[in-house]
Each structure stands twice: as structure tokens, then as C-alpha cells.
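Entries read chain and fold; for instance:
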Amino acid sequence: MQVIPVLDLLDGHVVRALRGERAAYRPIQSRLTAVSEPLPIARALLAASGAHTLYVADLGAILQRGTHASQLAALRAALPGIELWLDAGFADYASMRTLFDHIDAIGQRDGRAAHLKLAPLVPVFGTESLRDIHALQSAQTAGLSPILSLDHRAGQLLTAAELERSSAWWPSRVIAMTLDQVGSYAGPDLGTFERIRASAAAHTTVIGAGGIRNRDDLTAAASTGATAWLVASALHDGQIGLAASESL
């Protein structure tokens, strides 16, 4: 099973997520590096996990406090071999396109786009923000391979609008996101993951998120059929690392 590291951005810093209670998030204190700036933290997480994918949550954008477009452009330029999954609270395709174009414009202004191979950006549409399910098809048509995050709290799906309850509109990759478990060291919510996986179409890959504490949790998550799991705290605290993820 692949470990996908998570970078949570707020007010210019990488922060430690805790149960989705964003008002309580503080700049990260990590065993991997002494700083909280996005790029060194991103490099440390990728080195610790051996991953070629980085999940980025732009909490400033999600909370409507301003995006981290400059930091995201810098990550794209510095991590050309890495696929960046970006959740920035997209309500629809237009809001996603606006941010992606802004990030591209910053890269071109700084001369990055002309001289460097940039990391690809993949949009993540979270149900807590999504208002138009057609956004996923529009992103797919644009060649962006979108991901749907099914955001849960207290066992309930969080939605910004009335969404179709069937899985017919889901894209080929879906995240089973349980915010209660994020940063909690309470263990992964395997029940929610298995329920989502059971309702997904055969061609849909379901990715887990939140709650991983140690190698045993990774093994338990892999046993459910998960091919990947989003992880942050256990990497920052040195509870898991490259050796653990390689052997699963």
C-alpha cells in the first residue's frame, strides 16, 4: 500500500491538522525538519515516505482566507517528478480553473514555466465544498484526472449542497476522508473506508485518509484492499517511514 504524505497550508505555514478543527491548527513541529515552510517540509515528507505523490490542502482557500498560489507555484517548480493533489475548497470547475490559471501565471511571471518541467497539478474536489458535481466531468474533459474526496465527520457525509447519493458520478479515484481521525492518533476509520469501497464502481480506486498511527495501522488498512492512504502526523513524528511503506 502506498503512503501519500499530506501538506496542510495555512497562513503561509505547514500546520498540524487535528480532527478537522481548523481554528486550532498551529505551525507544524516535526521530527523531520525544524522549519514550517512548505518546500522543506514537502521534501522531508517525500523522502520519509518514498512517495511520488503529495496531497496538498490549501486551508486558506478552503476557509476563504486567501489561497497559497505562490507557494503552490514554488512547489511545482521545485518538485518536477512529483504529482501534486490539490484540495483548495473548489465549489465548481470555474473556481478550480481560476486557481490553476493563477498558479500558472505566477510560474510564468517568475520564469519557472519557460525553463522547468513543472509538477502536474491534480484537482481534488471535496464534498464539504463542492456545489456542482459536473465539475468533475469538466475537469476530466480538460485532461486533469480529478479526484473526489468524500468528506465525513461523526459518520456523516459533509456536503455543501445536495449531492447525488449514488456513486454513478464518481471519478476513477475517490478519497474516503474521515476528518475526525485526522491527526487524532485514534486509528484509521476502516468501517467508512470499506463501506465506500463496497459502493464504488469496479473501476473506481478508493484511497483512505486519516488516523494512521504506526505500521500495524498500515497493515490493517492494506488488508481492506486500500492501495493508498493519506498520512501526515505519523510521518512527522517518526512513527512510520520509508521502510514500513516499502514492505506493504
